[in-house]
C-alpha cells in the first residue's frame, strides 16, 4: 500500500481508536475530566508570631509571619473564596525555647491564644495544629534531644500528648503530628479520648521524608536543627515500601487522615498509599515547592497561574483528597474568578 505524503490529500489511517475525539470540544473535555480542583481541597498553612507587624519571609514571596491582625485579615480573605481550613505554625521567641520544648503546652502560649481568637470570630473555621516540638525546642529538633544527640522517642511522645491536649483544649479541630516519632498516633488518640476529645481528629504525617524542600519553612520559623539532621526520624527519600508500613501503623493506631510530604517529588508514594488504604489522604506541597514556583514565575520563566493550578491538580490526581498549600488563597481566587 502506498501512501501519498501530500498532507492535503492524504488517505486517512485505518484507526479504530482515536483518543483525540474525546478532546475535540470543551464540553466533551469537561465530562471526561477525571480530577477536580476546588477551594475545598485546600488547607492553608499560616505562620504566626507574637509581634504587631507582618514580617515577610524572604524565601517565600507572598508569605509572612503574621501578627494577630494580619492573620485575621488573611483568614477572612481566604474564607471569602471558600478556603475554610487553616493550619497554624508558630514562630516562637528564642527566649521561650528550651530543651524540653515545654512552651508547646503553655495554655497561654501563642497557639492556644490564636486558636481562641480565631474561634471567637469564626466558630465554624476548621483549625489544624502541628504537633511537633521543633518551634519550641532549643535544639531545633521535632523531638527531645539527649546529651549524646539521640532523639528520644518515648519521652517525646509524652511531650506531644501534652502539646496536643493543650491545642484541643483551646479548640483545635484536627491535630497533625509532624514529628515522625513511633507510636505517637495511638498515644495521642488515647490522650485525647482520656479527656473526652473524641471528636478531635488526627491527621498523621505518615510518610514525611527527610527533605531538602523544607528549607524555606525553617527560615520562616527559625527552626532549623542546631546540630545534626532529621534522618533518624524522618524517612529516607529512597524508600517507598517503608511508607506503606508507616501507613499500616498509623491506620491501626487510629489516624483519621494520612499524609504524604513533600507532595510533588513524592507523587508515587501518594498513589501507592491511595491503593493501600481506605482512609482519606492529604499531601503537603511544602515551602520549597512553593519557593520554586514563585521564583520561576517572578522571573517570567513560568506562567504562575497555570503552573500552580497544574501542580495542585497533579497532587489531586495522584490521590490526595486535601492539599496543604501556601497557594491556597491565591489558587482559590483563581478558581473562583476573584483573581485574573
Ligand atoms: C516540622 C515541620 C516542618 C514542616 C512542617 N512541619 C519542617 C521540618 O520537618 O523540618 C515543613 C513544611 C514546609 O516545608 O512547608 N514539624
Layout of helices and strands, plus pairs?
Elements: H1 26-32, E1 42-48, E2 55-56, E3 64-66, H2 68-80, E4 85-90, H3 110-121, E5 126-131, E6 144-145, E7 151-152, H4 153-170, E8 174-177, H5 184-194, E9 201-208, H6 215-221, H7 241-253, E10 257-261, H8 267-276, E11 281-285, H9 287-298, H10 304-318, E12 322-325, H11 328-336
Parallel strand pairs: 1-3, 1-4, 1-12, 4-5, 5-8, 8-9, 9-10, 10-11, 11-12
Antiparallel strand pairs: 2-3, 6-7
Helix pairs in contact: 2-11, 3-4, 4-5
Bound molecules: ligand PBG.
The site of ligand PBG has 10 residues, from helix 6.
Can you put this structure into words, describing what you see?
The protein has 340 residues and is α/β, with parallel strands linked by helices. It has a domain at 37-259: TIM Barrel. It has helices spanning 26-32, 68-80, 110-121, 153-170, 184-194, 215-221, 241-253, 267-276, 287-298, 304-318, 328-336, and strands spanning 42-48, 55-56, 64-66, 85-90, 126-131, 144-145, 151-152, 174-177, 201-208, 257-261, 281-285, 322-325. The strands form 2 sheets. An 8-stranded parallel barrel has the order 1-4-5-8-9-10-11-12, surrounded by 9 helices. A two-stranded antiparallel ribbon has the order 6-7. The longest helix has 18 residues, at 153-170. The protein is globular and about 80 Å long. The model has no long low-confidence stretch (mean pLDDT 96). Ligand PBG binds next to helix 6.
Amino acid at each position: 500500500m502506498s501512501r501519498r505524503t501530500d498532507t492535503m490529500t492524504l488517505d486517512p489511517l485505518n484507526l479504530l481508536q482515536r483518543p483525540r475525539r474525546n478532546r475535540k470540544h470543551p464540553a466533551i473535555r469537561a465530562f471526561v475530566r477525571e480530577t477536580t480542583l476546588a477551594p475545598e481541597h485546600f488547607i492553608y498553612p499560616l505562620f504566626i508570631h507574637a509581634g504587631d507587624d507582618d514580617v515577610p519571609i524572604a524565601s517565600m514571596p507572598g508569605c509572612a509571619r503574621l501578627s494577630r491582625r494580619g492573620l485575621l485579615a488573611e483568614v477572612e480573605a481566604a474564607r471569602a473564596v471558600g478556603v475554610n481550613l487553616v493550619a497554624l505554625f508558630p514562630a516562637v521567641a528564642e527566649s521561650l525555647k528550651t530543651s524540653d520544648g515545654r512552651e508547646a503546652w503553655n495554655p497561654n502560649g501563642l497557639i492556644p491564644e490564636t486558636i481562641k481568637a480565631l474561634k471567637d470570630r469564626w466558630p465554624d473555621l476548621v483549625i489544624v495544629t502541628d504537633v511537633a516540638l521543633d518551634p519550641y525546642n532549643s535544639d531545633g529538633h521535632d523531638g527531645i534531644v539527649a546529651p549524646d544527640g539521640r532523639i528520644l522517642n518515648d519521652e517525646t511522645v509524652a511531650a506531644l500528648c501534652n502539646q496536643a491536649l493543650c491545642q484541643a483544649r483551646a479548640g483545635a479541630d484536627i491535630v497533625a503530628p509532624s514529628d515522625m516519632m513511633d507510636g505517637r498516633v495511638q498515644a495521642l488518640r488515647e490522650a485525647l479520648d482520656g479527656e473526652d476529645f473524641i471528636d478531635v481528629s488526627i491527621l498523621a504525617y505518615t510518610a514525611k521524608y527527610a527533605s531538602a524542600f523544607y528549607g524555606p519553612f525553617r527560615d520562616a520559623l527559625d527552626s532549623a536543627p542546631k546540630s545534626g539532621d532529621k534522618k533518624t526520624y524522618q524517612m529516607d527519600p529512597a524508600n517507598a515500601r517503608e511508607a506503606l508500613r508507616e501507613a499500616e501503623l498509623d491506620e491501626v493506631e487510629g489516624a483519621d487522615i494520612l499524609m504524604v510530604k513533600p507532595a510533588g517529588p513524592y507523587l508515587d508514594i501518594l498513589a501507592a498509599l491511595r491503593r493501600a488504604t481506605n482512609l482519606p489522604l492529604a499531601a503537603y506541597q511544602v515551602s520549597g515547592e512553593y519557593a520554586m514556583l514563585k521564583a520561576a514565575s517572578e522571573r517570567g520563566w513560568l506562567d504562575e497561574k497555570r503552573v500552580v493550578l497544574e501542580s495542585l491538580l497533579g497532587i489531586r490526581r495522584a490521590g490526595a483528597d486535601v492539599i496543604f498549600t501556601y497557594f491556597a488563597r491565591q489558587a482559590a481566587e483563581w478558581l473562583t474568578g476573584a483573581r485574573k
